[in-house]
Amino acid sequence: MNKTPAIELRHITKRFGQIVANKNVSLTVYNHEILSILGENGSGKTTLMNMISGIYHPDEGDIMIEGKPASIHSPRDAYRYKIGMIHQHFKLVDVFSAAENIVLGIEEGKYDLKAATKVIRETCDKYGFEIDLSKKIYQMSVSEKQTVEIVKTLYRGADILILDEPTAVLTPQEIRKLFAVLRRMRDDGKAIIIITHKLGEVLEISDRVSVLRKGEYIGTIDTKDANESILTEMMVGQKISLNIERTEPKNVEKRLVLTNVSVNSVDGRAILKNVNFTAYAGEILGIAGISGSGQKELLESIAGLQQLKSGSIIYHNPATGQEEDLRDKSPLQIKNLGVRLSFVPEDRLGMGLVGSMSIIDNMMLRSYREGKSAFVRRKEPHDLADRIIEDLQVVTPDAQTPVRKLSGGNVQKVLVGREIAASPTVLMVAYPVRGLDINSSYLIYNLLTEQKENGVAVVFVGEDLDVLTELCDRILVISGGRITGIVDGRSTSKEEIGLLMTKAGRHHNEEGKEGNDEETV
Amino acid sequence: MKKPSEKAVHEQLVQISKRANLPAWQSWLIRILAVLASLVVCAVIIVLFTGDNPFAIYATMFKGAVGTSRRIWSLLQGVAMLLCVSLAVTPAFKMRFWNIGAEGQVLMGGLATASCMILFGNSMPPALLLLLVIAASIVAGAIWAVIPAIFKAIWNTNETLFTLMMNYIAMQIVSYFTYIWSVPKGSGKIGVINAASQAGWLPTIGKYNYLLNILIVAALTIGIYIYLRYSKHGYEIAVVGESENTAKYIGINVKKVIIRTMILSGALCGVAGLLLVAGTDHTITRDTAGGRGFTAIMVSWLAKFNPLYMVVTAFLLVFMQKGATEISTVFGLNDSFSDIITGIIIFFIIGSEFFINYTLKFRSRKGAEAK
Fold first, then answer.
1. B239 to chain A, closest Cα gap in Å
2. What is the mean pLDDT of each run of 10 residues along chain B (371 residues)?
3. What's the pTM?
4. How far, in Å, CA of A382 to CA of A400, rounded?
5. To 5 degrees, how large is the angle CA A299–CA A302–CA A307?
6. Are residue A165 and residue A307 in the same domain, yes or no?
7. Residues of A with CB below 8 A from B249's CB?
8. Residue A136 and residue A273 in one domain
9. Domain hosting residue A82, numbered range
């Protein structure tokens, strides 16, 4: 195969205010290859790719395409250079069909959906995409939506495809399908760039790997010469061990029992359907599932933020030995019952924290009511903030800094730190390492294990199946609001969980509502 | 590397990017420069359209605002009244409850004051009447504010439209009563109430008519500052305003906070009505609030909802208003001309916030390559 450079980046630098997102990055992508851009969260991968796809513009340096400097000021410009990017968050119109979305925004020629559909069909067949072009986006699974995005960029003539964390939302089976398609596109001569932080995938799919660390270009190696420890060292800058210590659960006792919990959305759609499970003190219960399968509502139901349609949530209080039903109680009522429930929600700045407030005032969220005075005391929250900053190595100028100004990882440390400081008996965490660097992620895993050893019932909603199977004692799999299985974390496999994630209990659904949902496995 | 083909390469001339934190003195420098720049622009416009000497006009403006001790008192009184309404809207705005009904709330407070003075002026001991007047004004303002708050809390109605409409209702009610109680009958003007007995009038301190008003507002300023910054209520207001989801997550009763805060906001508007009617005009008209309910929004916003900064912004606005009125009379210019000048100056002040938060970078291809 003859490899010619598709894009060459020369000394690219991009700053946002004081922050240098990319510093003097130079790298080359060839046709007929898949290049992985590997780096931790915040290392500047996405920023770099956004400059190629016309969302940002470099402060310094050149982007060379076919040996000439290219000036890319908008995604439209990028398409002129045959560059297409598939973002992490899909940009599709929900009420349009796949075909309509694909042709949307193309100006040349007249609008002829039939002719376009034929062309799209050919593209799909060529690379092996399985897609129903007349299906509406809102009826699609995440993986189908991603397929539409990829086909859309191909239809627009892209020869250089950039995929930003394409596997983050997919099951192992879907990932395998995606990789097969990517390989076919590569063999057809396309240049493909994948942004990722998952080492396993890098080794599986790419031909070469370029590593970024804190905005700086570290180097590029051929995948055949790489292994996980080499790549980690390049990424983090030091050797670290990637092992999660999973201790045997001790003093296991019932803490939280959910029976027949059903929740409807505001518009009456069933979001949780007859959920039954028990969370035990002294264990980590993982919750796996495609995002949006009801995980958020499940945790919010327990925290008193969702109206239950039916069912009960019984809390076994270890201090009094009493049982309390948390159903139809507000968060404050739950707290006043003596239930020590800590909750790290998925939406950190929109729910767990107040972005414009200082770290101190965010600490106060949990404790400001204490005392009879009409005024707040900032001394204890200040001490707590200082302690968390030190213990969890939060990078911040001081405790007065608004949390919005911190990086994602540090925001998460502040939130997790506060919730653990409340010495909970139940600790619920949703995607606690999303956006975190490797070291911080392992810090959080260890904190969770520590809580479990202290007799806390830990409920962990995660997306990385590798982590779930390494960290959790039991894993509950949720799909379409139903529990499709509870498996043992030590004996299960990623494939088993992946199958359960898409099973959706559709074979035995009572309402028959989802009859038109196709089996995606 | 420079090829002719590069001509096709177009460059963005200006890039806008967010600034890192600017030291306080620099941001104030930008604001002061903005005011100076606005004066220059105004000068150009003055010369172009009137031919008058801009410096003479500025001098007149200055004299108009603070030229005599009577004018200084009038200026301070104006600042106090505007500040009072601004303080009233601030808790609601901090909660992101867009209370643009302060105008109506002030009017209702004023109307309650006037009614008590008219109805009980001759039948009640003065001290008791004064207490009644104070209580009635506060309650009336609070009621006018709590109605939209209840609708918002329970049915999530749009508070902006609701409070705005409440203004018109308040104005019509005041019109009705000014007609009913007008002296002489049918004139549509109430005139000074209880001119002889001064029943229900707020007392004056010595010979300074406005001093009590000013002191009350000064105390309120400090009170609201402390309330918002150090009280549990103030903390809850901030949390609800920033994120209702966070408020629910930590167990704040959002409905209760909305209603409670609007009662406070309306009560303070009622106080403004009291000060205007019982402490200043001793009568009521449809124009008693004088648009302060709307100007207050700007005062509060420009000061980023900080009551201490609001003293400065209120002063600035009233100063310009007084000065601009003066130049209209002295130079025989149309009234609108003072509005134009005030408008330009405010535009620059608001615009300066952009330069405080963002920086512009001019870049040229050559510059980048020469490096």
1. 7
2. 40 66 82 89 87 86 88 94 97 95 96 95 90 96 97 94 96 94 84 88 88 96 96 96 94 95 97 95 91 93 92 91 83 79 86 83 50 34
3. 0.80
4. 9
5. 100
6. no
7. 303, 305, 331, 343, 345, 351-352
8. no
9. 5-236
